[in-house]
Write a sequence for this structure.
């Protein structure tokens, strides 16, 4: 399928071929018919992408601070690699469209194939995977052209709802671009007196033609006109839909608003304000967030959980519904706002018009892709012949691009990567372009049936790991899967069964075992005998509320990251723990706690304590490992410094072992190295991590190989809440 993307670093706009996205259970696959270019938003995005790195930094100082903090804790080299990876990405464009439903996920409600829908959050592509709650059925009388305004109209409507002006009230709309024009029309349909204000006479005239009072901003003269129109009181609310770095639109709004009026910021404007103006009239300054409640809420968009109408009357979906109903009833018209329509193949011309024609208000793209698409494999380059093991990748997220793929190349896999696939397609295409991968496969199934792939690297979200491991092993492939291997004991049993019934190798991404400092330390400890004591302190740092680790479907940070540190402790001991205890902060359900201490007891008397905290100072290095026993004391400080018996060992390189593990994987598959006991250790670590979850739930278990059932965990939770 064709999709419109632009480079994050240079702003280059392209129409690229990518596989159609694979919708999840709460998503809808839509064949697009029309999509709308939002003049203000997309012009601003394009300008920022085309800007210099210095200008980008000035525009987003919050991101600069994140980079600096990461460099302090994670090292300059890895931070630079991560930043380069982000800047090298292709960014999809568009967020307001309309089309025909191809398939609807099992967890969507009221949507069926063949239905026309208005879509929000995704846009300029022949096919879209849309959150089910943001795919809104279109009334028969509403055209695709009008329906494509749905998301942009919802932005205008949410601003109007924040104004809370009743029937017969007055509002001023400052800034008469596309969102401003829609705000004017929605306000008129609501029975309000509307004054539209802009610096351009033609936009003011357009607002006047649909029933508002259109004014060209002229300072005191404009204020005087507004006071005359409102009987000397000022307007009840001002909706600021302008897009400018200047603070003048907000400052001017204070002069035309009545006492205790509401000012609602909808557009992206400057906010260097004089407090006195707000104080003297006790003005209420508000902000409208996108389409309405539900936008940027994971439970709403990703999980498909709607807000009860008795508690939240107007959600993002209901705002789009209300707009479509107004168009269907004839109370709102938008077709006259469309100034240009281009076929998707000519998208670059559409953006050129948007940039060069000041009167290009609403520009749309049209599509003619079939409503029953066929899966498309994208060939990036001719396949190279090779006698070495050949790989295919599932997943192309940030970790894959910034860390894993560079490590694969360094480990010798660079010329032997045949194909890649991802859920949304675009990220896989970008990774293929940048890493010389021959084929972008549309689905996992298409990748697994290829006979030119020997080993599959699984880098997808955690909840897919166990299923994909079993699927790939059954397809006759060797498998490398990033941790965690499984999220439940049932999943682990299924993986074990798949491994036992097939002949392929299975590797798990516990890379710290292969870190040069760990290898050197283990050699030193091997000279002695007896138990050891391991103390592992991790300053993990807090994650943003929207981070996918907070999604309970992904298992949380204990299964996903603490397992790394448990694995390394067991690897140094040389055995699996007999006893697992865990103690948490009590914040959050057991599987999703983020501040925990895990105590491991081993058959030979060794012990290990993993202290995992998100509340340390951001400048504190992430990891510190101390090992005492067998006649030695070993300290590994954030994998940048190794100390044995009080002396720093300088000849051993740093790093967390990604490259070394992948080189070992290659050697084992090629028959040049033994598999040793790595897989048994990986199964043992996974069982231990699941035992830690059970311990946090209040279920004690003496041996991690015999785990409690999910029913046991639910029983304990039920008892705790009764």
């Amino acid at each position: 399928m064709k999709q419109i993307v632009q480079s994050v670093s240079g702003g280059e706009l392209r129409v690229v071929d990518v596989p159609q996205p694979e919708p999840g259970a709460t998503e809808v696959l839509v064949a697009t018919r029309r999509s709308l270019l939002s003049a203000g938003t997309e012009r601003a995005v394009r300008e920022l992408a085309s800007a210099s790195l210095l200008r980008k930094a000035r525009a987003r100082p919050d991101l600069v601070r994140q980079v600096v903090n990461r460099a302090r804790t994670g090292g300059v080299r890895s931070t630079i690699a991560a930043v380069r990876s982000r800047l090298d990405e292709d960014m999809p464009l568009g967020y307001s469209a309309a089309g025909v439903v191809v398939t609807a996920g099992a967890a969507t409600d009221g949507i069926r194939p063949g239905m026309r829908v208005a879509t929000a959050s995704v846009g300029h592509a022949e096919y879209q995977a849309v959150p089910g709650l943001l795919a809104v059925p279109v009334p028969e009388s509403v055209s695709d052209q009008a329906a494509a305004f749905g998301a942009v109209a919802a932005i205008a409507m949410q601003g109007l709802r924040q104004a809370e002006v009743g029937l017969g009230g007055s509002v001023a709309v400052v800034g008469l671009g596309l969102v401003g024009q829609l705000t004017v029309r929605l306000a008129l349909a609501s029975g309000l007196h509307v004054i539209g204000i802009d610096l351009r006479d033609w936009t003011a005239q357009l607002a006047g033609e649909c029933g508002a009072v259109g004014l060209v901003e002229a300072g005191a003269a404009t204020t005087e006109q507004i006071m005359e129109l409102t009987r000397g009181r000022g307007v009840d609310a001002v909706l600021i839909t302008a897009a400018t770095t200047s603070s003048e639109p907000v400052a001017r709004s204070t002069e035309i608003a009545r006492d205790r009026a509401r000012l609602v910021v909808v557009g992206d404007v400057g906010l260097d304000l004089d407090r006195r103006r707000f104080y003297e009239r006790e003005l209420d300054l508000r902000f409208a967030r996108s389409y309405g409640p539900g936008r940027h809420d994971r439970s709403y968009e990703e999980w498909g959980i709607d807000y009860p109408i008795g508690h939240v009357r107007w959600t993002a979906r209901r705002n789009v519904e209300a707009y479509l109903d107004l168009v269907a009833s004839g109370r709102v018209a938008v077709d006259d706002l469309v100034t240009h329509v281009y076929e998707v193949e000519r998208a670059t011309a559409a953006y050129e018009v948007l940039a060069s024609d000041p009167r290009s208000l609403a520009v749309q793209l049209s599509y003619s892709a079939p409503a029953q698409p066929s899966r498309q494999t994208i060939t990036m380059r001719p396949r190279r012949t090779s006698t070495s093991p050949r790989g295919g990748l599932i997943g192309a997220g940030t970790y894959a691009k910034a860390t894993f793929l560079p490590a694969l190349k360094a480990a010798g896999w660079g010329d032997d990567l045949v194909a890649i696939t991802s859920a949304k397609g675009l990220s896989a295409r970008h990774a293929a372009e940048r890493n010389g991968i021959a084929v972008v496969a549309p689905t996992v199934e298409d990748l697994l049936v290829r006979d030119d792939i020997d080993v599959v690297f699984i880098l997808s979200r955690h909840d897919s790991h166990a299923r994909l491991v079993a699927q790939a092993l059954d397809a006759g492939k060797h498998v490398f899967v990033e941790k965690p291997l499984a999220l439940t004991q049932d999943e682990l049993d299924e993986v074990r069964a798949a491994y036992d019934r097939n002949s392929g190798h299975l590797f798990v991404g516990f890379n710290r075992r292969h870190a040069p400092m760990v290898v050197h330390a283990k050699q030193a400890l091997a000279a002695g005998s007896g138990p050891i004591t391991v103390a592992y302190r991790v300053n993990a740092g807090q994650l943003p509320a929207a981070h996918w680790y907070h999604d309970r479907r992904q298992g949380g940070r204990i299964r996903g990251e603490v397992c790394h540190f448990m694995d390394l402790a067991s690897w140094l001991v040389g055995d699996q723990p007999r006893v697992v205890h865990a103690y948490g902060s009590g914040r959050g359900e057991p599987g999703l706690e983020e501040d925990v201490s895990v105590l491991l007891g081993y058959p030979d008397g060794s012990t290990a304590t993993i202290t995992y905290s998100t509340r340390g100072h951001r400048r504190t290095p992430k990891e510190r490992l101390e090992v005492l026993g067998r006649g030695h004391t070993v300290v590994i400080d954030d994998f940048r410094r190794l100390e044995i018996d009080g002396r720093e060992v300088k000849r051993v390189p740093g790093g967390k072992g990604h490259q070394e593990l992948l080189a070992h994987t290659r050697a084992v598959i090629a028959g040049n190295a033994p598999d040793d006991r790595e897989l048994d250790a990986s199964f043992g670590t996974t069982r231990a991590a699941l035992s830690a979850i059970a311990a946090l739930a209040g279920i004690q278990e003496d041996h991690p190989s015999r785990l409690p059932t999910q029913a046991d965990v639910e029983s304990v939770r039920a008892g705790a809440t009764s």
Notes: The radius of gyration is 29 Å. Confidence is low (pLDDT under 50) at residues 700-710.
